[in-house]
Each structure stands twice: as C-alpha cells, then as structure tokens.
Design goal:
single chain; mainly beta; three-stranded antiparallel sheet; binds zinc ion; Galactose-proton symport; SET_dom_sf
Length: 176
Amino acid sequence: MSTTTTTTTTTTTTTTTTNKPPSHPTLIQVHRSPIPFASGAYSLVSLPAGSLFCPITGTTPSRKAYTSVQTGRDTHIELNSDLVYCNHSCAPTLDFDMARMEVRVVADRDLKAGDPLTFFYPSSEWEMDQPFQCTCGAGEKCRGVIDGAKKMEVAVLREYWLNPHIEEMVREREGV
Ligand SMILES: [Zn+2]
C-alpha cells in the first residue's frame, strides 16, 4: 500500500514507519499475521481478576463493521488502537465495558502475562457484521458459530458479563 519513494537519508528509517506505533506498548503485544483474522493481542502484564486493564480512549463513531464495537442499541465505534487485535473467545480474558469505556480483566480469572487478550464478542454485539465459526479452543465451552447475542440462549449468555445494552435487548427479547 505504501507508495513512499524511499530516499533514505538516515539509518533510523525502518519498515516500521509504515505501521502505526503501538497504542499500548506496556500492556499489549500484537502478533500480526498475513493470514486474514489470524492476528492477535497478548498481555504484557499480570493483573488480578476484575481489575482495570485500560480505559478505552481515542474511539470514533462508526457504522457496524467487522472491526467496530457496539456501544448501544444503534451505536458503534472504531477502537483506533491495538485493542482492535483482541479476538473473540468463548472463555475470554477481558470484558470490554462500552458503557464505562473501560477494559477489565474478567471477574473470575486472573490475567497472566502472555495470555491472549480476548473478549466475548456477543457481550457487546447484538448481531455480528460477519458471523464466524469460532476456533477459540475452549473445548465444550466453545459456542460454535458466533453471530452476536441476538440468537444466543439466555442460559449461555448468563455465563458471561454483558454490556448494559445487550442486557436490555435480551430482556426485551425474552419479554421480562
Ligand atoms: Zn469459541
């Protein structure tokens, strides 16, 4: 994509000039893959269950897309940071709280340095822009096709922390 005509005048110029600098250099290690959807984020820190991982800043309003995160009934944002590399898992390490705009370690498990940074996409997404077959490796806890909270059973959703807008839409669907 780069059309830079390199007229290298210093020895400090490297290929990294075509990438954005890490947004969370002390927290997140990004493993980039040329294979679509195979990139991922890994933790550089160990933190206790339930603690703040980082605030969510620098977002911009967006239409629903495969990189966007749903923040309300009809609202979506782009993260514009390395948080976008946090993949879905059915046994996630993080909760993305889009009401308080913060990322927390899940309430029932400590985060260890080296762990994949993941969250349960249906905790924010009612209907995924691009449903996918999950390969999270969570064994029988893996939910298979992930297409958002809309089609998931309440009993399954109850095993996860959910954003307020998803809670509300589930209650509405169930008529309670
Ligand atoms: Zn899974």
